[in-house]
Automatic annotation (TrEMBL), chain A:
CDD domains: HTH_ARSR
Keyword Transcription tagged: yes
Key word Transcription regulation present: yes
InterPro entries the UniProt entry points to: ArsR-like_HTH, HTH_ArsR_DNA-bd_dom, HTH_MetalResp_TranReg, WH-like_DNA-bd_sf, WH_DNA-bd_sf
UniProt keyword annotations, A-Z: DNA-binding, Transcription, Transcription regulation
HTH arsR-type domain span: 1-89
Gene Ontology terms for molecular function: DNA binding; DNA-binding transcription factor activity
Domain of life: Bacteria
Signal peptide: none
Name recorded for this polypeptide: HTH-type transcriptional regulator
From TrEMBL, chain B:
Superkingdom per UniProt: Bacteria
Lineage: Bacteria, Pseudomonadati, Pseudomonadota, Alphaproteobacteria, Rhodobacterales
All residue ranges annotated as the Activator of Hsp90 ATPase homologue 1/2-like C-terminal domain in the record: 27-140
Protein name listed in UniProt: Activator of Hsp90 ATPase homologue 1/2-like C-terminal domain-containing protein
Sequence similarity: Belongs to the AHA1 family.
InterPro entries xrefs: ASHA1/2-like_C, START-like_dom_sf
One Pfam family, short name: AHSA1
Amino acid sequence: MTYDNAITALADPTRRAVFEALAVKPQSVADLAQGQPVSRPAVSQHLKVLVGARLVKATPQGTRRIYALDPTGLIALRAYLDRFWDDTLGAYAAEVRRQSAN
Amino acid sequence: MLDSIVKTIDVPCSQKRAFEIFVDMASWWPLDKRSMSLMQAGAPAKSLSVDAREGRRIVELAADDVEHHWGTFRVFDPHAHLQLDFHMGLPADQTGQVDVSFTPIDAGTTRVELVHSNWEGYGDMAEMMLNGYGGSWDMLFGEHFAAACAG
């Protein structure tokens, strides 16, 4: 399931660091490896997992591939927060109605 | 880069009252549904402490007496506008912003708009949800994803 992969993929701190670096700007594997305390093959491996979880997508640019965030995998987090605010604002509106009735 | 979450509701009271009730969060926040305590201590939080002033905090007291710092008021402009750094138990540097505006529609109706932005910075929340919710994960997301998969 997509959401399960997304959550699991982000549970790893190094992978999350790669993900966050791509949130700042799209980059190639070489660019990413420069900014991370891990080897280039390790970065490639993390990217593979992130792409599999649909958190990151690759776009060919000449001979390189540029990696960027893919919002698809963030749907789970968004759905969670969407419901979070539905629940809380629902409770707020109920309290306003309760106080207005008094 | 990602779209903010935007929620708009109309409440049947004046702008002043809508604002006052909102910042009195302890009176309405559903701790039995949404609290750190629920995820980490397995029971609703004991209380929510809201110091409703600029620069001051919202702190939850969990069932196991652990305090969770939820957020900090960054803009406090009665009775029109609030802005919070909102991280709900995550480290304060991993914060999203919650912006709430109160607009009078007429004497007895106020439109409340809540915008939650920068939430994609919540990398750790994904981990927290995984650890905290465990078996109830399907219940939380099942409906949404069942619909998405059916489409």
